[in-house]
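Troubleshooting: if your tokenizer reports a length mismatch, compare your output against this known-good record of 306 residues.
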Amino acid sequence: MIRSNTRFVRLLTLALGVTLAIAVAPASAGLFVSSDFFNVVAEYDPVTGSYAGPFTSSVNAIGQLGVKLNAAGDRMLVGAFNGGVDEFDANTGAYIKTYNPGPGTQWAGLYAPTGNVYISSWNTDDVREYDANTGAFIRVVASTLDLPSDMRIGPNGNLYICSYGGAYVREVDAISGALVNQWSQPVLSRTNDIEFLPNGEALVTALGSNKVFHYDTSYNLLGMFAGTGWGNTHGIEISPYDGNIYVIDGITSQMHAFDPVSFTELDSSFLNPGPGGKIVDLAFRIPEPMSLGLLLPALILMRRRR
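Known-good structure output:
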């Protein structure tokens, strides 16, 4: 009986390992990359970096910037230098609508905790909220920002806004927009995008200095790192597939991979083949874990046969 139970535990452990492997292996490509050169969001395999093809082209916007998915992974927002923020079906690439169409840079759209959409606007130096159904303007969430670029909801639930013109990151209440904190980056950093490590520490990209700055949870600068041949450091994400840090660079037109602990560069040309034109931002579709429901009956049957 002891041997049988021990064997069963080993089989279950093995099955769980297989299940986890299945959970992180994508059923289809799920890495999206925007381009202000092509105005086409391209899709890549998030594990191998292999090119899967063009996903969707800009409709009203020109000069793609930030790309964001909603939590369900079925809607996509693409910011731009001009023409507003286009929204697409993130499964099919079908166009849905454009938020605030018109002239001026609107770097990023973000699916907000209010259920609506936040947009960072260079015309008005603020972050604005729009109705997710009608696209109508609702209110100004955070004002007096200096060329707001990319945004992210942090692990504490607050909204973090990068200032491209002011070289700082502003933290505000994600609902009210009330100021919580603000910290400056090195001079002329052109703050671009922000991501958080699992321990809550922040990583901030800077196009001016072409570095990623690493901050502790109190926003003290811990260090910085850079990639091979960098010249226009843009979007940053931690992959849900392998846990590595991925950063877009516009000069090498590549995605660079880094170890999340040592920050050592693991790959200077992850995208295969490279796009051959300037790219700006990236977004991973979160993989869905496979249920154990299909594996447990097989394990029980194996146990009974022993």
